[in-house]
Design goal:
This protein is an all-alpha fold. It has helices at 2-11, 13-28, 35-69, 74-106, 112-141. It is elongated, with a radius of gyration of 17 Å.
Length: 151
Amino acid sequence: MEILSKIHPVIIHFPVAMFSLYVLFEFINLFYEDPKYHKMVNGFLLLGVIAGVAAVLTGNQAAENVERFFNVPVVLKEMIEEHETYATITMWYFTFLLVGRFYLTNKKKFTKMLKVTFVILAVIGLLLIYETGEHGGKLVYEFGVGTKLFK
């Protein structure tokens, strides 16, 4: 399944975009009462979670390939593990947001206070995405993971 590891850099940008749009429209949703906005926000979040699962799976395959085919230093293994940990936490975080949002939307219990709470939670999610990307970027730009150095 080496092909999965090669498409990780391509796939990862889609969930980042979907989660960013989710946060933007979660904020916009504060000012509008139209149920269409709830559906649109839920849609961005759902697409982000689905794409995020694909990104995590391809990332896990990429990490496995690096560790299997190369004698990697301990510091690189630790960086890979940190990146994986942040990615996993981020995915679970957004998954819980998705479940909570779907439940509250379907039960029509989305109060103004809950909207504010979800905006705050969404921004925290963006911080998790940033940290995940920061660790992934270090793997690429400092260690050359995913470049021709590892082929």
